[in-house]
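This is your field. Have a critical look at both lines of this record:
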Amino acid sequence: MKRLLTYMKPVWKTALFAMVFVIIGTLLELYEPILVGNTIDRHITGYDLPYVQTADGGVSFAGERWEKLADSPEETADGTYGIVVLYQDGYYWADGLTAAQAVSLRGAEEDRIAPHEDGIIVDMQRAGGAVPARPLTRTDLKTLRGTDFAGILRAVALYGIILIALFIIRRTQYMTLQKMGQKIVFRIRQDLFAHVESLSMRFFDTTPVGTIVTRITNDVETLNEMYANILVNLVQNVLRIIGIVAMMLLIDVRMTGLTCAMLPVVIVLTYFFRKNARRAYDFTRTQVTAINIFLSEHLSGMRIIQTFRREAVKELEFGEKSQELYRANFRELMTFAIFRPAINMAFYLSRALVLAGGAYLVLGGRLTLGTLYIFTQYTSSLFEPIQDLAEEFSSLQHALSSADKIFRILDEKPVVVEKEDARDLTDVRGEIRFEHVWFAYNEDQYVLKDVDFTIRPGERIAFVGATGAGKTSILSLIGRYYDIQKGRILIDGQDIRDLTTDSLRRAIGQVQQDVFIFTGDIAGNIRLREESIPDSAVEAAAKAGGASHFIERLPQKYHEPVTERGSTLSAGERQLLSFARTLAFDPRILILDEATANIDTETERLIQNALERLMEGRTSIMVAHRLSTIESCDRIIVLDHGEIVEMGNHAHLMEKRGRYYDLYMSSGEVMA
């Protein structure tokens, strides 16, 4: 969590701005029930509130002006008072009272009232004696309660203003938080992708593509919900709960006890819900990752699946994984399906207690109807944030689970690390030297053993050997995609571990057997969005690499759209495009790793002359399936189980009748 919160530092002002709106909105929500409850007590059921005689304002009645009070006056207050008394469904008016008399008359019980010739007479009890009260007509009552109607209109207007203010506040809060969340998630996604790009090839050798895709997409999007909603909602709901409980305690302790009677049950339910929800979510995320890995792998290998007619088998495999995801989702849904109804049941029981206890107090004259309304509303308002808190804690755990997976990737350390004082490789001549190099992908399982050779600038070298001899490993080491365990590799006399990887790989152009074509167009796949390469250079590279002959036949030529992996192009055309891509970057060292393996004989003849021009003036290193394509190389290095067994040109090695001779004579054998 501490690590996640560091991403909020650049937007802390936005978060603070949103929190101000959260606090204001929470206060307005707390005031809503109080406004309605007070309106009920003062203007609807508050017929027995005293009136004070005034010089102006209020209402005109019985030749005087009267202003209704919001509450009972102090018994020692000055002034002349009047009050409405209810007796046997009739309303009566008593005036000329002191403050103490008005307080004593308020809510007078019927056993204190007796009929009188002009109306009724009421026993004053605390104030002593009795006072007469005359009957009120409907017109009189309407006149006296005119201020109540005006008060109700004011309350309605204020309630409307609160609703509009809440709408503006919540909308502003929502938009602010969503923008903040998107900014943070954008940064995390960028950081994650940039970090993945910086990792060594070892990471991609051992991590399924589907796992990486899930982390960058699904898991990052889960964090968006946390930043945009969960964190602020947690604070908001905590504030609401504290505020509601505080207001209830201030209004009536007895009713607060009734309202909170079910809270222990809710706390126990919440504890078990959080525990089970976290477990269910973790299981769901694991199944989502598994199905993404399956889809990524099998969609990429659809040609193999269809070639070997494995559709039915793979459909069954996918069905099993989909069934596991279904079970995981169902388990998560069941957790919520139990928790939410249980919380609702606790809420209804709590409301029943509030209504029953509150009604008893109202009928006994110890609680006002408006106060009962306030507590019924606060009961709803209390249980809603408690339920939200439980679900938000669960969502927060979901986010933390996703964050844990994301940070595991961010914590991956590149195996190949630049030195702090690494220098750029400049003025490349192309000399390559391996000095007693030992290399293993896995500890102590060496694929190269004491390899020692020197390639002079501009020399053409070929590596040959059976499968697993170490040919491709040597090519990977030259570009420092892996680090060696023993020995040194030097370019122009400089240890490649002392050079920046950018400058090193900029000097090397590599054409591989498996050519990857990106979605876009032909020109984009040649320049790879390196805008410093002009169209003329792109076309020149395509021409030199032999690709222009098929590009010129396309309807839109260099702007012809291509799809992922170049499915609209033949294997030979993709390989020619790879030649053009390499040439466009004009490397000083050229590596051809089975570069002609996917090119037919006619196409191969087409590019042989281009290759001759290509390799001229460049240090060229080749690994070829067809040994006939390397006969013109200056030297051929023969590898066997990671060791150099022979070295020389084609004629010399054929004369020796050694390992190379055997390979050449059996050249129909696959030596990938």
Q: What stands out?
A: Residues 232 and 279 are 24 Å apart (CA to CA).
